């Protein structure tokens, strides 16, 4: 919304008026993204020819459903601020999810401005070892995103000498996880592991999982608690309680806000002036998706083309190179992945996440 307002809701010298509609893909029944709602959203977008770009989704499992629907309709370009499952873009037999079947037209129409979990999972395993951990227990929420990043973490752990004493999926609807945490507390030769890594999103009972870990094994100083961007939200801290969450770690692709360049700093200033203090790491990625869509529209116009033509706009998005945006200077590759691979770890300190380390 902010980026479009800055453009005056216009493009190509005022020739086109642009509108943004926010379509939630969650349902009250599930309390998180709902496959039926996401499928309905994608079908609705595919059928409405006035829609030229689909900005989303947040969850990788949702993207797996919408990518083929949108690909078959034009294709309608999809630009995600947050999907990190590698298999959405990378056709590789060794990656979970995979891949070319998502693109029935055989033309890539999905791009993302965030680095994928094949990077995040590798960095997370190395970071966990750097904390002094020799043993780790891995949990995941059994979704495409959570299990995918947990599997990458496990594979990397084997390569770097970090011993995995267990890996299992949890029931996101369980009332509590005390029995699980009791089992983990004796999983390492009768004692607890040095760390627990969780591949999950906050919606899948992440706060309860941490509450029960702390109840059984104590605070997060002895048994380190590490997770991905799916738990790097203020809602996770608030749900678990600041004292319980204190010391937990979570990674997010990209630089922390304080390390962004001039355009990133201007975004932060403009956002907080309009909406108040920014606590969510993906706000700048949402801003960048609209930034990309606007640039592609302008590029089509500059070439004498028609930006309401879905294929023209898709091609313009994939042609973006050395883009000077809020995230820095970056490019899309042929698969729709970003050239930016920085990864930042945050730790809960005094009730909020603070950046503690950035890796290239």
Written description of the protein model:
It contains twelve helices and 16 strands. Helix 4 crosses helix 5, helix 7 crosses helix 8 and helix 11 crosses helix 12. Helix 3 links the parallel strand 5 and strand 6. The mean pLDDT is 95. The protein is 37% helix and 18% strand. The protein starts with a helix and ends with a strand. With 360 residues, it is of the alpha/beta class. It is globular, with a radius of gyration of 21 Å. The strands form five sheets. A seven-stranded mixed β-sheet has the order 9-8-10-11-12-15-16, covered by helices on one side. It has a three-stranded parallel β-sheet with strand order 5-6-7, with helices on both faces. Strands 1-2 form a two-stranded antiparallel sheet.
Low-confidence segments:
none
Give me the side-by-side strand order of the main sheet: 9-8-10-11-12-15-16
The rough form would be described as: globular
Secondary-structure-based class equals alpha/beta
What's the quick description here?
The chain has 360 residues and is of the alpha/beta class.
What's the SSE blueprint?
Blueprint lengths: L1 H5 L3 E2 L4 E2 L8 E2 L4 E2 L1 H13 L5 E3 L4 H12 L5 E4 L29 E3 L4 H14 L4 E6 L3 H17 L2 E7 L8 H7 L10 E5 L6 H12 L6 E4 L6 H7 L1 H4 L3 E5 L8 H14 L7 H20 L7 H9 L4 E3 L2 E3 L12 E7 L2 E8 L1
Parallel strand pairs: 5-6, 6-7, 8-9, 8-10, 10-11, 11-12
Antiparallel strand pairs: 1-2, 3-4, 12-15, 13-14, 15-16
Helix pairs in contact: 2-3, 4-5, 7-8, 11-12
